[in-house]
Amino acid sequence: MIVTIDGVAASGKSSVSGGVARALGVPYVSSGLLYRAATLLGLEARLDLHDAPAVLAHLQGHPLRLEPLAGGNRIWQGDRELTGELHSTRVDAGVSVVAALPEVRAWVDAQLRALPAPFVAEGRDMGTAVFPHAGAKFYLTASPRIRAQRRAQERPEDVPAIEAALVRRDELDRVQSAPAPDAVVIDTGPLTLDGVIQTILAQLPAQLTSA
Ligand SMILES: Nc1ncnc2c1ncn2[C@@H]1O[C@H](COP(=O)(O)OP(=O)(O)O)[C@@H](O)[C@H]1O
Ligand SMILES: Nc1ccn([C@@H]2O[C@H](COP(=O)(O)OP(=O)(O)O)[C@@H](O)[C@H]2O)c(=O)n1
């Protein structure tokens, strides 16, 4: 059983996926961490992030391991844990460039498809490209201002700067970030985190919640 939760930047995907996954007793899978880790490695190696062969060769030489736990995902390169370094402003600024490289997307998709189900998968294209046969699909939205206000709790910049960066990233991510035709779209703006989680749980097919 796979449930997909896609959506725009800072719409609540990872917090909501964690809550849904805990309620179902399964792990969640944060696909964005793989793109973020690929970006961090590329920045550290001073690669041109537009250079697909260079980024891919570097990834193949420095394999990443995603640990999809219900309580929060962790990601490793060899013995080094990268998780705490992935939500910086510099990774935010570079990640959409790396995520636009088809070779990197194919590499990430292969990592994700190798994970053992059941799980909740969150990202941009979980319900469209990666797991089109998922048992239930959701897509989260909220206005840029609300998302920036939420993210301001986690970043040093002020709300207008965060909002501008989110809008720019939404634009760069637009190609791979569209709701699946069979996804339920949820505007999280007027809802609490728990409200979003309960909305999703209430819409899951009975066979998923009893599995
Ligand atoms: N519906 C909501 N109401 C209030 N805060 C929320 C809601 N959803 C998410 N948040 C908060 O917004 C921030 C961004 O959420 P996060 O799960 O990291 O989003 P994403 O994975 O889409 O980037 C977190 O601080 C989270 O607690
Ligand atoms: N399935 C995915 C997940 C993330 N991404 C890319 O990775 C970036 C970071 O995604 P994320 O989900 O960790 O971060 P937020 O957008 O939630 O801040 C996105 O801006 C996309 O460029 C993607 O292209 N496809």
UniProtKB/TrEMBL annotation:
Cellular compartments annotated: Cytoplasm
Keywords (A to Z) from UniProt: ATP-binding, Cytoplasm, Kinase, Nucleotide-binding, Transferase
Top EC class of this enzyme: transferase
CDD domains linked: CMPK (cd02020)
Residues at which ATP binds: G7, V8, A9, A10, S11, G12, K13, S14, S15
Reaction catalyzed: CMP + ATP = CDP + ADP; dCMP + ATP = dCDP + ADP
InterPro entries for this protein: Cytidylate_kin (IPR003136), Cytidylate_kinase_dom (IPR011994), P-loop_NTPase (IPR027417)
Segments crossing the lipid bilayer: none
Entry's EC annotation: 2.7.4.25
Occurrences of domain Cytidylate kinase (ranges): 3-203
GO molecular function: ATP binding; dCMP kinase activity
GO BP terms, alphabetized: pyrimidine nucleotide metabolic process
GO CC term, one of those recorded: cytoplasm
Family: Belongs to the cytidylate kinase family. Type 1 subfamily.
Name of this protein: Cytidylate kinase
Gene behind the chain: cmk
